[in-house]
Amino acid sequence: MKYAYLAFEDYENELESEIKFKKIKLTTQMGRLFFSDEWATFHWAQLSLKNFKKVNFKSINDAIKILKAENLYWGAYSYQLHRRTELIQNGLQNRKISEIPFLAKPTNRNYGFWFLLDSNTLLYSAKTDSSHPLGFVRIKEALQGPPSRAYQKLYEALTVHTEPPAAGTQVLDLGSCPGGWTWVLHELGCQVISVDKAPLDDSLNDKKRITYLKKDAFKLDPLSIENPEWLFSDIICEPEALLELVLKWQKAYPKLKFLCTIKYKGPTDFKTTDIFAKIPGSKLIHLCCNKHEMTWIKN
Ligand SMILES: C[S@@+](CC[C@H](N)C(=O)[O-])C[C@H]1O[C@@H](n2cnc3c(N)ncnc32)[C@H](O)[C@@H]1O
C-alpha cells in the first residue's frame, strides 16, 4: 500500500479508465480508493496519498489519540464501518467544516487522511497535499443574482485555482447563456464580451459592462476583439473542437489567459485531454463541482 488515489464520488470509472490510459498498475481497490505502487497525476482523483501508516487501536478514544498526535486536521473516508468512522471523526473535529467564501484567501492548514481498514485498524496518511478535508472544497453560494448554477464552477476555480481577472480588464465568455459566468465576471468589474447563439437571461440586459454577441463562438474572429485579457469558455462541444479554438486564440494573442470547461458527451476523451494537460504553463483540474467535464486553466 504505497500510494492511493481517491476518486471523486460517482467518477470511480473515470479514475479507473485514466489509470489504464496512463498504463499504471493497480494493486487493490477499496471503494473509491485505488492503491498502486506507482506515483502519478490523475485528474479524476480528488486526493492523492502517500506515506501511509497502519496502526492497530483498542478503542475509539485510542484511535482519536493516535490521530491527534499526528495532525490537527483530518478528513475521513467512510469506506466501511460508517458509525465507528463517524464517532472517531467527531472526536477529532471540534467544529463542523463550513463552506468557504468566494475569493477567500487560502489557509495553511494541511489535512491528514484516514480510514478504517477493519474495526481496530487505522490506515492513515498524516499529511496530504490539500488544505481541504479529503481534497474537497465547497464555495458559499451566491444568495441572489446568478441566472444559472454554472457560476459555481467559476466561484471554485477563481477561489482555489487561479487569481481572478482584475476589474476593468476585457474578458470573453464563450458559450455564456444563460449567463452565470458572465454574471460572476461582471460582478468582478470586468468588461465582458458574452458570446452565445442563445440569449442571455433578461436580468443581465441592462448591465453596461456586458456586451452580448449573438454568434457562433467558433466563427468569432480573434482580430475582431481588441486585446482580450482572458478567454472563458463553457461551450458544449467536443474536446477537439475546443482545442482547435484555444490554439486559434492563443496564436492571435500569445499572452491570453484561459479558463475553459472540457466537456465529454460520451466516454472521456483522454487523448485530447492529455494534449490540453501538456500545454506549457497550464493546469487541468476536475473541480469539485465539475460533473463529467474538466477545467483547463492557463494564466
Ligand atoms: C453549459 S451552457 C453555458 C452555461 C454558462 N456558462 C452559464 O454560466 O450560464 C453551454 C452553452 O454553450 C452554448 N453553445 C453551444 N455551441 C455554441 C457555439 N457554437 N457558439 C456559441 N455558444 C454555443 C449553448 O448555447 C449553451 O448556452
Describe the model.
It is a single chain. This protein has 299 residues and is α/β, with parallel strands linked by helices. It folds into two domains: 3-135, 2-Layer Sandwich (VC0802-like); 151-298, Vaccinia Virus protein VP39 (Rossmann fold), CATH 3.40.50.150. The chain is 24% helix and 25% strand. It is built from seven helices and 15 strands. It has helices at residues 12-21, 60-68, 82-92, 151-161, 180-187, 239-252, 270-277, and strands at residues 3-7, 26-30, 33-36, 45-49, 53-56, 74-76, 112-118, 121-125, 170-174, 191-196, 210-214, 230-233, 257-263, 282-285, 293-298. The strands form three sheets. It has a seven-stranded mixed beta sheet, with helices on both faces. A four-stranded antiparallel beta sheet has the order 2-3-1-4, with helices on one face. Helix 2 crosses helix 3 (82-92). The chain starts with a strand and ends with a strand. The model has no long low-confidence stretch (mean pLDDT 95). The structure holds S-adenosylmethionine (SAM).
Mean pLDDT over all positions: 95
Q: How much strand content do the residues show?
A: 25-35%
Number of beta strands? 15
- Helix and strand string, N-terminal first? EHEEEEHEHEEHEHEEEHEHEE
- Helicity level: 10-25%
CATH architecture verdict of the largest domain = 3-Layer(aba) Sandwich
Indicate the CATH topology of the largest domain.
Answer: Rossmann fold
> What is the CATH class name of the largest domain?
Alpha Beta
Low-pLDDT segments:
none
Distance between the termini: 36 Å
Strand order of the largest sheet: 11-10-9-12-13-15-14
Question: Which structural category do the helix and sheet elements fall into?
Answer: alpha/beta
Give Rg in angstroms: 21 Å
Domains, number: 2
**Which small-molecule ligands are present, each listed once?**
S-adenosylmethionine
Shape: elongated
CATH homology superfamily of the largest domain = Vaccinia Virus protein VP39
